[in-house]
Design a protein that fits this description.
Blueprint (H helix, E strand, L loop, with lengths): L7 H18 L10 H7 L2 E5 L6 E6 L11 H15 L3 H13 L4
Antiparallel strand pairs: 1-2
Helix pairs in contact: 2-3
Length: 107
Amino acid sequence: MSFGALDALTREQLQHELLQIWSRTGVTTIFVTHSVEEAVLLADRVLVMSAGPGRIESDFRIKLARPRDVSSPEFNALRRDIARRLTSHLVPSRERLAVTSSADPIS
């Protein structure tokens, strides 16, 4: 379950509760989310899946100390790296589109 459909206050509260449960029990949890920030905040490991078929494309070990500061340079560098990996398959088609568009004569 992801917390993405919740309002911001409830999402933060549940993220905090999940981390508290994890710190008390140490139980392994698999959490699926589309939010890179949420993944970096909660996880020790983030797996990036390919668009289709669903395969593990990247594996990031999150070695940031807890509690995590979402405004820290280290947190945001990792967030950017993962986001870049998520969108890396889109870049070639954008580049082709830009090249094609710039080469087309204006009518």
